[in-house]
Amino acid sequence: MNARNIAASLGYPMIRAGHVPMTHVQVRRKIRPQLPATTKFEPEPAIAEAEYQYMLKVMDDMSVMMERSPTAFERLEEEHLRDFYLVVLNGHYEGRATGETFNAGGKTDILIRENNRNVFIAECKYWHGPQTVTDALDQLLAYLTWRDTKAALVMFNRNKNFTAMVKKMVETATEHPNCKRSPTQETETRFRYVFASKDDPAREIILNVMAVNVPNPVEP
Questions:
Q1: d(CA 121, CA 209)
Q2: Which of 2, 62, 77, 183 has the most other CB atoms within 10 Å of its CB?
Q3: Per-residue pLDDT for 23 more than 70?
Q4: CA atoms within 13 A on the CB side of 9
Q5: What Cα–Cα distance (Å) separates residue 7 from each residue in 18, 44, 45, 53, 184?
Q6: pLDDT tens-place string over residues 162-202
Q7: Could you tell me the pTM of the whole model?
Q8: Measured distance CA(102)–CA(214) in Å, rounded
């Protein structure tokens, strides 16, 4: 049975909607599990790597839009910035992305569920120094159950020295006690980690840490 669960979790097939704009959606995507022939075994949902990357790309493109339209986002609080990610993710995944949703140890910022099971969890925080990253990772790991294996942490920066912030963010995440392997840089500001589950060191979690540079409000 364990072998069947592992095999089933390797890929969670989804239906692609063709060339859909990341931040302006016209066609919505559907997450469709491929069920086995027998009704005695139901695999745990685990999104395929390509679909996980697609979700991150949707968020990346929303981040770029924030950075390129400073006046539209300069006075927004953390939860309001998060809502923009929810809007675009819901456009691609038919309303399955929710915010402030209870899961395990608290309410996570972004949660995508399929068949009442989690396939993606993300947390959004403003950067206030290295401890912010440590606290946010602790919080995110507390939200993840044993079955949750794909996650992301978004760090919003309002400081002037964004390059230094990204460097310190990566160093701090790498030093976290649950970090199992050094990060792989996937974009200029997004880094892929493998973390251990909070309650089960043998359980691995794929966790992307991404930085977004948002402007400070301009005083009149």
A1: 12
A2: 62
A3: no
A4: 17
A5: 28, 10, 11, 20, 25
A6: 999 999 999 999 999 999 999 999 999 999 999 999 889 99
A7: 0.75
A8: 27
